[in-house]
């Protein structure tokens, strides 16, 4: 939900903005601050501007996921709504609301600090380009505007703010390098949530056409880290598109950070494509059923995604899903059947991606039960008497049913279940040569 705000954002025409900045630069400059620009540290003159002059940077990395959420909530808007809306009032107003909310984040409450201090240090200026676009300090500007608007007399110190001006021309890549250095490296990565960081890598690869090496250098990370972040957002996009049926709605997975980061690390350690695919598939199943396992989401993921368990996990999924819906030969041409042809493939030695692809990702009690039963099987795998104990337990439950009531409305289902038990028992005796 977008934060309600009081400050009225009005975009000043770019020609007028540039003239105001240019005229201020001609005045006596008392102070300069150094910033890394195009791989060199350069002094930038400080000027004082009215808080209504600068405009927000709409390609701001930490607001990317909030922008996507806004587009989802307003489906009539084009995907390029923010990308091409730098000089538009409406986009700037929405960005202001997003940034104001971020300024009050519990981990770094900029709004609270600025409201308490009621001063803006000249040696920590906002950073703008010659057009007045904020490259660094977007959240601070949003906070200051709201603080000033709340009581203009009390917070008159915030009517004007110090801005360091980069006078040379900057292209999109230059701006991104500066932003990464100041916000991702220099500030110890604390301001970007995990989704925003993944989206930032995706944007730099797709929009700016940067290599992993260039992005790694800009963000102060390693190339493998960048590759994993890119892979992770690709898988998450797939999960949102195909499983959650909510493309781009990152709010659905934002609280699943541990699940997805652990998943990517485990997939990265496996070279076999089938194993990687199964690890991702398990995460997707847990994601769409998240919260329905009690507090066991991560425990279940950890057990199922363990390399030594993967083959047994897939065999269990194969058996359970094929037993849910029989695949008849005459219906083999039914391309909509997620389990089509599943029995024909043997994954006893090497996991094949064609098998993994057919394992359905769905929400519901049956699918939760299947994963829970898989965990149970894995936990009992080291117990030689497990099958004996299970057979005795099953018999005891069947015997106990003799003393139970059979309400009319349940009889049909009970009869069907008992017949299925007979079939499964006979098949088990035959398959296991008992």
Layout of SSEs?
Blueprint: H1 14-25, E1 32-37, E2 40-50, H2 64-73, H3 89-103, H4 110-117, E3 126-129, E4 134-136, H5 138-150, E5 160-166, H6 172-185, H7 194-206, H8 212-219, H9 223-242, H10 257-268, H11 273-288, H12 297-304, H13 310-324, H14 353-356, H15 365-380, H16 386-400, H17 408-431
Parallel strand pairs: 3-5
Antiparallel strand pairs: 1-2, 2-5, 3-4
Helix pairs in contact: 3-5, 4-5, 7-9, 8-9, 9-10, 10-11, 10-12, 11-12, 13-15
Please sum up the structure shown.
This protein has 434 residues and is α+β, with helices and mostly antiparallel strands.
Mean pLDDT across all amino acids: 86
Uncertain segments: 323-332, 341-348
Instruction: State the helicity in percent bands.
Output: 40-55%
Structural class: alpha+beta
Counting DSSP H or I runs of 4 or more residues, the number of helices is 17
Biggest sheet strand order reads 1-2-5-3-4
Shape: elongated
- Radius of gyration from the CA trace? 29 Å
């Amino acid at each position: 939900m977008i934060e309600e705000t009081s400050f009225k954002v009005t975009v000043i025409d770019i020609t007028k903005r540039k003239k105001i900045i240019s005229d201020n630069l001609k005045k006596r400059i008392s102070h300069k601050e150094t910033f890394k620009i195009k791989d060199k540290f350069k002094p930038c003159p400080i000027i004082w501007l009215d808080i209504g002059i600068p405009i927000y940077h709409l390609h701001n990395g930490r607001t990317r996921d909030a922008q996507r959420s806004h587009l989802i909530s307003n489906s009539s808007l084009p995907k390029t709504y923010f990308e091409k809306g730098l000089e538009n009032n409406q986009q700037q107003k929405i960005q202001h609301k997003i940034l104001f909310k971020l300024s009050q984040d519990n981990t770094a409450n900029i709004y609270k600090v600025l409201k308490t201090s009621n001063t803006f240090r000249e040696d920590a200026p906002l950073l703008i380009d010659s057009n007045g676009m904020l490259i660094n300090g977007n959240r601070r500007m949003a906070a200051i505007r709201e603080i000033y608007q709340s009581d203009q007399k009390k917070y008159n110190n915030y009517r004007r703010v110090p801005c360091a001006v980069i006078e040379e021309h900057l292209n999109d890549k230059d701006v991104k390098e500066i932003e990464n250095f100041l916000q991702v490296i220099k500030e110890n990565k604390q301001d970007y949530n995990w989704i925003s960081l993944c989206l930032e890598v995706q944007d730099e690869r797709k929009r700016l056409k940067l290599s992993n090496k260039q992005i790694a250098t800009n963000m102060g990370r390693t190339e493998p880290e960048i590759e994993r972040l890119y892979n992770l957002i690709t898988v998450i996009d797939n999960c949102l598109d195909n499983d959650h049926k909510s493309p781009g709605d990152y709010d659905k997975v934002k609280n699943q950070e541990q699940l997805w980061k652990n998943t990517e690390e485990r997939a990265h350690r496996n070279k076999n494509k089938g194993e990687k695919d199964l690890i991702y598939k398990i995460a997707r199943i847990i994601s769409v059923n998240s919260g329905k396992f009690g507090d066991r989401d991560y425990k279940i993921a950890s057990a199922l995604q363990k390399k030594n368990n993967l083959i047994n996990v897939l065999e269990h999924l194969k058996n359970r899903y094929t037993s849910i819906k029989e695949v008849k030969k005459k219906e083999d041409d039914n391309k909509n059947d997620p389990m089509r042809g599943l029995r024909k493939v043997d994954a006893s030695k090497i996991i094949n991606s064609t098998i993994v692809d057919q394992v359905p990702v769905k929400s519901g009690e049956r699918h939760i039960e299947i994963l829970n039963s898989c965990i149970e099987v894995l936990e009992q795998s080291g117990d030689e008497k497990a099958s004996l104990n299970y057979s005795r337990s099953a018999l005891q439950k069947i015997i106990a049913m003799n003393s139970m009531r059979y309400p009319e409305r349940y009889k049909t289902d009970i009869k069907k279940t008992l017949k299925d038990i007979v079939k499964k028992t006979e098949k088990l005796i035959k398959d296991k040569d008992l």
